[in-house]
Specification:
single chain; Heat Shock Protein 90; alpha+beta; Beta-Lactamase; 9 domains; five-stranded antiparallel beta sheet; 38 helices; kinase; two-component regulatory system; about 25% strand; about 1400 residues
């Protein structure tokens, strides 16, 4: 057994040292019985990789060999699970059969030399007895062996299963929380949860939600699978009771015990384990259950359980929150209901008080203003009037306070002059204060900033404070101060009254708090006046405080902010004209009574009604209908109005509606609270009826306050009077509304007639269902003789359904936005009942009543069907024109107008111009192509446009800027005027064809012909042309001069002048002409002058379209002098060849002699060293015997080298046959031969695997011997030489060998010189040598059809790069 202790530092198994448990396992493993073999036989590449693996803390595995045998370290051992340590030494396919299809391509990639790997790769391993969901980051890195090929795979891996699954679950929980947060009911929560749980089926195969109410059995709410199927598949009830009692989850180890059909989740395997989780409320009670199927590919651990519990907790938490919110909402609703009940009570009680108050105040005021009133009764009537007013004030105060307390008091703030308004309100008390012997002092400073107030509320504030000051002040004065303080306004009411004790100051603004038994003008009061003042000031964004000293008086200070930033935007209103105070009468009357004044000359608030108040009407009296369920009220109002109007009465709303339809009165007065049909219901019926809708309606109600008034006006009433009311005011308002309505009706009639005469189609729709209020007569052109007035648009035009028109009306009515549609196509049923498409341009805009409420939609439309159809025809024509332009095979464009704007242009024209559409479209052609200016095109285009005469040009030169450079191009173009149907010229159409290439080609041909003619003439060449059909020959003078014949000579005559020996040459040349179409031959001709000349003829055959030869064109040249020179040169070459052959024979003879002379001494060394070994070998010491052996080996190699040199010098390249050379063995031989020198220099040779090559062994030996010897020679004196021999980029044809050293190097600029003979870069006394070594290396490499180069850096060494063929296909010396 191999143990760690047996692995010494010098052992070849030391790489197995360490490595922990796996190191021990590998050392103790009998590897000789495996395909890897004994450890001693393992290659160095495996040893190095395994050593790194075993001593690393990173999970690493090594798969070795083609079968991928597995080796790994301790950090990697948990990855195979229970397959460890069985997996050690086994193949990857044996260890990982379940994931082999996924990882096999990765191994193949690595063995091809490419690294591979993956991130968060899902590898479903079976390492714990089941298929497991596993994720890994891993790399596959190829391990190269000694032969330079991939022998194994280095596998570094990190398991990321925990992170991937945790991130997945965390993301799900986050999204679940976001989705559930939007739910408003528990049902929403459960439905959303089931929906989301379907997306996490890798962790939760299926989920079922059960709800439980109290002690009832849980019911299946929903499931991620078919709920009905889940319910039917239950074999027995789930352990709900156990979970409820335990209060926590219960694991169900075998789902088959409960389910007959188990739903399948994401994975192929069925889930066999489940869990039942309680859904607990915040109070701890169980509200439901979550039943989940667990993943068959994950073990149920603490993290898994926490995830399931988190899902359940998220649902339960949201459900609990919703329950809490629901409880709070119900509580709020209960409080709101109480508030509504209280408000209703106050409203009803107010109504019940106000009606009798009206019937009291009305007759009393009538009697007090009667001229014949007996003075004896007047005093009593005044007492009755004062107390009725006081009761009215108390009712109003209670109602106002109840609204404030309920938060229903709605303010309407507007910019006011606070100084003037406050002074005016306070001044109404001046008479009462002065009657009491006191003074009212008012100090109002200028207020520069804007102050916003609700005027009615401010009246109550000021009247209460001044009234309160007067009540508790017996003498002295009351002072009102209005002043600005920084960004606020202070209103101060100070008195010199009895004051308030310090211990009671904090209570003065409390509800119903009264200071008892203090000196005052009266002990009457409800105790809510100052409380109401404080609340009203708060509604203004202000504050109020009081300071006081008993016996000296009190000061109430109100502070209000300036501006409107502190106020709600929806409560701001524009300034309006304000009438005199409507509330001060009651306060002043009460103050006068405190002062002891029992009567006034004219009671405040009472107006005399006489004949001067009557309104005269031109025809008959207007008719007024009064609806009130109180008979006394009906009689009272009828008596008030009867003098000026015809008054009809009705006992309730239903009775009033009947009489409205019957009598069509000019105005309706109605109470709000009535049986059968109340005032609001009656108002709705009136406004909805087309004949009654414009009838003025006045609400007469006991419901006081701004809110009730606003509600009535918003409902559509024209006016709102609160009981008790002034008789005069009622008469005036009735008269005014009747008169206004009469004027409005007349105006409407005039507008309607104007409307009907408008040339544009106008319709008016009213209400949310868009009922035709006005149906324009022009509609009849589309729909025939119909009238849609009173019909909804859906009733009138059902064919609009689905066309989006009704939806547009809805949008305008609901949002108040104006909608415009241009040329909208709408399908109608025409007057013949057939579908007809109309194109309309129309707008919808809301129309409002005087109060700013949307009443309906105004429709203005123009039928543009004819115009659009005509425009479409025009556009279609334009499109056709554009299509013609686009498809045109030539460049085309259209210029519009007198400025020649480019309207249409095709791609061919843009290419010709060298421009884009953006450069020219919509611009004048001279703006888009400024280079055209000054080239004459302005005048041409203007002439065509103004006269209509066409213009064309051929091969016209134009300068265009294309690709940023000006260039001259040639173009054939035509301009044609474009005429409209009526004959007017609207533009110019241009067609262009660029002919630059043709023009330039023609010019090139012409120039070439000229040059050829000059060349022929200068070269003294003769040309000829032979018509092959007629055999007619024509030639130049030079042609006949060279031939030595006259111009009249025929072809046959010229042929007879050819030397008889050359006639066959001519025949062969013409045979070749028939095949190739080309003629070339050299012959001798005998001229008419008797001279013989050498002539060279060349020619080319031309053909007609069918391919028949028709013409032979050619050139003839006199080459007599060339032939004579060639003959002389041939003689000189032959003589030089003979001389070289003799020199070569002499060199070969010298080589034989030299080699013989060299061999003889080597033989002697061999002979005598052999005899020395044989005769005295036993006597020699061992070291001497080693020397003798080396002498003999060196002598043998010397003989071989001499013989090789002899053979190289005596054999031709063709006679030598290359041999297969083992370069690794050859290098070892060289290392042995240089052993002494290497030991002397302590040199080291590092060799990598070098493939075999073909070549001459002795020469290849000499090549590497010279290079290695050169490296040793030029080594650094201070550093042992290291020589590295390696290969790079080896392929099937070539081998590239690098011989690198760490020597002295040289300047790279001398790299070409080192291969020259006798070249030395260093002095002889520094480095010995002949300067032939590297030159010989170059010759040897070139001899083998290779190359040799060198790269060098001074003081860093040199690298020689030798490229040699693996196979020598031929073996000649380089020419």
């Amino acid at each position: 057994m191999l143990t760690a202790s047996s692995l010494s530092p010098t052992s070849n198994q030391g790489f197995l040292s360490g490595g922990g448990e796996l190191g021990q396992l590998i050392r103790s493993f009998d590897w000789s019985q495996t395909p890897l073999g004994a450890v001693d036989s393992w290659p160095q590449s495996l040893r190095s990789a395994l050593s790194i693996c075993l001593n690393s803390n990173f999970p690493i595995a090594i798969y070795w060999g083609k079968e991928l045998h597995l080796l790994y370290n301790d950090a990697w051992s948990p990855i195979p699970g229970n397959k460890h340590p069985w997996a050690l030494g086994r193949t990857a396919r044996q260890v990982w059969p379940e994931i082999w299809e996924q990882i096999e391509p990765q191994f193949a990639l690595a063995f091809s030399g490419q690294p591979g790997g993956s991130k968060d790769a899902l590898l479903p391993m079976q390492r714990h007895g089941y298929t497991e969901e596993c994720y890994f980051d891993f790399t596959f890195t190829p391990i190269y062996g000694e032969a330079g090929t991939v022998e194994g795979v280095f596998n570094a891996v990190i398991e990321t299963t925990y992170r991937v699954i945790s991130e997945r679950r965390t993301t799900f929980l986050k999204q679940l929380a976001i989705q559930l947060a939007r739910a408003t009911t528990s049902t929403d929560v459960y439905q959303q949860a089931i929906h989301d749980l379907k997306t996490i089926n890798k962790d939760i195969a299926f989920a079922c939600l059960y709800t439980q109410k109290g002690s009832e059995a849980p019911l299946l709410f929903a499931s991620t699978d078919d709920s009905l199927a889940m319910s039917n598949s239950l074999l027995k009830s789930l352990p709900f009771e156990e979970v409820s009692q335990a209060g926590h989850s219960v694991l169900i180890p075998d789902l088959t015990e409960y389910l007959s059909g188990i739903p399948r989740g994401f994975w192929a395997e069925l889930p066999m384990t489940g869990i039942l989780v309680p859904l607990k409320s915040s109070m701890g009670s169980v509200e439901g259950f979550l039943f989940c199927g667990l993943s068959p590919r994950l073990s149920f651990d603490e993290d898994y359980a926490l995830f399931i519990e988190s899902v359940a907790s998220a649902m339960a938490t949201v459900v609990s929150n919703i329950a809490s919110l629901e409880a709070e909402r119900k509580r709020a609703e209960a409080l709101a209901e109480i508030d509504r009940t209280k408000t209703t009570f106050f409203a009803n009680i107010s109504h019940e008080f106000r009606t009798p108050l009206t019937l009291l105040l009305g007759p009393i005021e009538d009697m007090l203003t009667a001229p014949q009133l007996d003075p004896a009764y007047k005093s009593g009537l005044e007492v009755m009037h004062r107390n009725a007013l006081r009761m009215q004030k108390l009712v109003n105060t209670l109602l106002d306070f109840s609204k404030i307390e309920a938060g229903r008091a709605k303010a309407s703030f507007q910019a006011v002059a606070i100084g003037a308004l406050t002074a005016e309100l306070a001044s109404s008390f001046r008479s009462a204060i002065e009657k009491a012997g006191m003074q009212l002092l008012i100090h109002s400073e200028p207020i520069l900033g804007e102050v916003y107030l609700d005027v009615d509320m401010w009246e109550k504030i000021v009247l209460n404070l001044v009234s309160n000051a007067f009540k508790y002040t017996q003498q002295g004065h009351i002072t009102l101060t209005i002043r600005a303080v920084t960004q606020s306004v202070e209103v101060v009411v100070a008195d010199t009254g009895v004051g308030i004790a310090q211990d009671q100051l904090d209570n003065v603004f409390n509800r119903f708090y009264r200071i008892e038994n203090g000196p005052s003008r009266s002990q009457e009061g409800t105790g809510i006046g100052l409380a109401m003042v404080k609340e009203l000031v708060k509604l203004h964004g202000g504050s109020i405080h009081v300071s006081s000293q008993p016996g000296k008086g009190s000061v109430f200070t109100i502070t209000l902010p300036m501006g409107k930033a502190h106020l709600p935007l929806d409560q701001l209103a524009p300034p309006t004209a304000r009438s005199s105070s409507t509330q001060s009468a009651a306060y002043v009357q009460e103050a006068l009574r405190w002062n002891g004044s029992q009567t006034l000359q004219e009671p405040i608030g009472i107006e005399r009604v006489g004949t001067d108040q009557s309104h005269q009407y031109p025809v008959a009296k207007p008719t007024v209908l009064l609806a009130d369920d109180n008979a006394d009220m009906r009689d009272y109002i009828e008596r008030l109005l009867g003098e000026q109007f015809v008054v009809l009465t009705a006992m309730d709303g239903q009775d009033a509606l009947t009489k409205l339809l019957q009598h069509k009165p000019d105005l309706l007065i109605t109470d709000v609270m009535m049986p059968n049909l109340d005032g609001f219901g009656l108002l709705n019926q009136v406004r909805a009826h087309p004949e009654l809708k414009s009838t003025p309606v006045i609400f007469l109600s006991a419901r006081a306050g701004d809110e009730a008034k606003v509600e009535g006006l918003n409902a559509g009433a024209d006016d709102y009077l609160v009981k008790p009311f002034s008789a005069k005011e009622l008469i005036v308002r009735v008269a005014n509304h009747i008169r206004i309505n009469q004027i409005r009706r007349a105006t409407e009639q005039q507008f309607y007639q104007l409307f009907l005469q408008a040339p544009t189609l106008i319709n008016v729709f009213k209400g949310p269902d868009h009922r035709y209020e006005i149906f324009h007569p022009l509609n009849k052109a589309i729909f025939g003789e119909v009238d849609f007035t009173g019909m909804t648009i859906r009733e009138a035009l059902p064919e609009l359904e689905g066309q989006g028109i009704v939806e547009l009306l809805d949008e305008v009515y609901q949002t108040g936005k104006r909608v415009e549609q241009q040329e909208r196509a709408i399908e109608f049923l025409n007057k013949d009942g057939k579908k007809e498409l109309r194109i309309l341009t129309f707008s919808y805009q809301p129309w409002y009543d005087l109060k700013g409420h949307i009443q309906g939609v105004l429709n203005v439309a123009i039928d543009v069907t004819r115009q659009v159809t005509a425009q479409q025809t025009i556009e279609k024509s334009a499109q056709n024109l554009r299509a013609i332009f686009a498809q045109s095979p030539v460049a085309m464009t259209l210029f519009r107008g007198s400025t020649q704007v480019v309207d249409i242009v095709n791609e061919r024209m843009l290419t010709f111009w060298g421009k884009t559409k953006e450069d020219v479209l919509g611009k004048s052609v001279f703006a888009g192509l400024p280079e055209l200016k000054g080239q004459g095109f302005e005048a041409i285009l203007d002439h065509v446009y103004t006269t209509g005469e066409p213009y064309s040009a051929i091969e016209h030169p134009v300068i265009l800027v294309r690709n940023g450079q000006p260039e001259t191009v040639y173009v054939n173009f035509a301009y044609e005027a474009l005429r409209e149907p009526e004959g007017t010229i609207s533009g110019v159409m241009a067609v262009a064809l660029e002919v630059t290439e043709q023009v330039l080609a023609r010019k090139t041909v012409e120039e070439a012909e000229t040059k050829a003619r000059l060349a022929i003439e200068s070269a003294e060449l003769g040309t000829y042309e032979l018509n092959l059909r007629t055999n007619e020959l024509t030639g130049t003078d030079r042609f006949y001069q060279i031939w030595g014949a006259s111009r009249s000579a025929s072809r046959q005559q010229l042929a007879t002048q050819i030397h008889p020996a050359d006639q066959s040459i001519r025949q062969q040349a013409h045979q070749a002409l028939a095949r190739t179409g080309k003629l070339h031959y050299e012959i001798r001709v005998q001229g008419e002058d008797g001279q013989q000349r050498w002539v060279r003829l060349t020619g080319k055959q031309l053909y007609d379209p069918p391919g028949n030869p028709v013409t032979l064109l050619g050139v003839v040249q006199d080459i007599t002098e060339q032939k004579q020179f060639a003959q002389l040169l041939s003689q000189q070459v032959q003589q030089r060849t003979l001389e070289l052959q003799q020199s070569n024979e002499d060199l070969q003879q010298f080589a034989h002699v030299a080699s013989h002379d060299l061999k003889e001494p080597v033989r002697k060394v061999k002979l005598f060293s052999t005899r020395l070994e044989e005769e005295y070998g036993d006597l020699l010491p061992q070291k001497a015997q080693l020397f003798v052996e080396k002498i003999q080996r060196s002598a043998d190699r010397m003989l071989a080298m001499i013989q090789g040199v002899l053979s190289y010098s005596s054999l031709t390249g063709l006679s030598q046959q290359p041999e297969q050379i083992d370069l690794m063995l050859l290098l070892e031989q060289i290392e042995t031969d240089l052993e002494v020198l290497m030991l002397d220099k302590q040199a080291q040779i590092n060799k990598q695997a070098i493939p075999d090559i073909e070549g001459t062994p002795v020469l290849i030996y000499q090549l590497f011997y010279n290079l290695i010897n050169n490296a040793l020679k030029f080594a650094k004196a201070t550093e042992p030489p290291i020589i590295t021999i390696s290969t790079v980029e080896a392929d099937e044809q070539l081998v590239k060998i690098l011989v690198a050293d760490n020597g002295i190097g040289f300047d790279q600029q001398h790299a070409g010189r080192v291969f020259e003979t006798f070249t030395r870069l260093h002095a002889k006394d520094a480095y010995e040598g002949t300067g032939l070594g590297l030159a010989l290396c170059k010759k040897i490499v070139e001899r083998h059809r290779g190359t040799i180069t060198v790269q060098s850096v001074i003081k860093q060494g040199s690298t020689f790069i030798i490229t040699l063929p693996r196979k020598q296909t031929f073996f000649n010396k380089p020419e």
